[in-house]
Amino acid sequence: MNLLVEVIRVVKRLATRAARAERDVAVANCPLDKHLVRVSQQIRQAIPREDFSGIAVIDFEEWRPLYQLNWGKKSVSMLVYLRENVYKRESLRLVKEQYPFISDKSAEELAKKEFNNAAKKIFLHTIAIARQLRPYARWGFYGFPYCNYDAGNSETDMLCSESFRRFNDQMSFIYQASTALFPSIYLSLKGTSAQNYRYIQKDVCNSLKQAADMGARGVILWSSSKNMKQRCDGLANYVRDMLGPCVAYVTYHIISV
Description:
By secondary structure, this protein is mainly α. It has helices at residues 32-46, 78-98, 104-133, 162-170, 172-177, 193-213, 228-256; strands at 9-10, 55-58, 138-141. It has seven helices and three strands. β1 (9-10), α1 and β2 form a beta-alpha-beta unit. α1 (32-46) runs parallel beside α3 (104-133) and α6 packs parallel to α7. The longest helix is centred in the middle third of the chain and has 30 residues, at 104-133.
């Protein structure tokens, strides 16, 4: 496979702090026109070439496009907890502000509906303007399709949970509007080598071949700059011993067909 990858992250955050004015972070109250102006500016800055034909990743991580997926995590800091719950809280507040005598149950249902509708509009308008500005790029959203974070830990079931498959069905509008999919798959150094390599040995070649068979132009490997020496050594070993041979095998069979 010919890997021509230029990954960008645009539109990093709609809200950067939980302490910012809460009225401004409600998704249903998002000024869409101002958001799209900022999107256009960031795309032109990050991808100056109009004929860019690489990979472009839009990264929304501060909130999720389904109301029920915006939960707090007890294992993280209070700032993150507040940040991840502010969207549900403010969606409810807006509904109760409009309808002071509404029941809690009805308010929750209406907040969910308004949040999901607004989120859908933000996602679709964002990728639409991205595709309009850089029509030859492969556009998609980081982390989609979703999967539960403990997927693959079971010896017998390596699939995403049924609930997350239902969530993905509800977010099908994202996949239909995208020209590439960028699910988030990490190999954790915290697990044992047997846990990591069990999945790799069984599936990495098949995953590459399946992507190639479906017309994918490449795969993305990325990491962070933290512990760079350790990460570089680990990645070098992984490419040499596992990924490299699989890529060579898949490439050979694609060319020979």
